[in-house]
Amino acid sequence: MSEPLRTAREIADQLGFSAATIVDWAEQDRIPHFKIGRCLRFRQSEVEEWLEARRRGPALESVQGRS
User: Fold this and answer.
1) Residue 33 reports pLDDT greater than 90
2) Cβ-proximal residues to 17 (8 Å cutoff; 6+ apart), any chain
3) pTM of the prediction?
């Protein structure tokens, strides 16, 4: 079965930001999303992967790449 889609409000509640911030990030392609018509939707698994990548941060990724 396919993964349920989440709204900007649901993602905002999960992350502790306003829905407007999540919409802004989506419009700037800063958070994984897609549109169905005019509606933004998010996959929970993609948001979790995005969060994990942000937690590790670019500094850690560049250090790991040098090993």
Assistant:
1) yes
2) none
3) 0.78
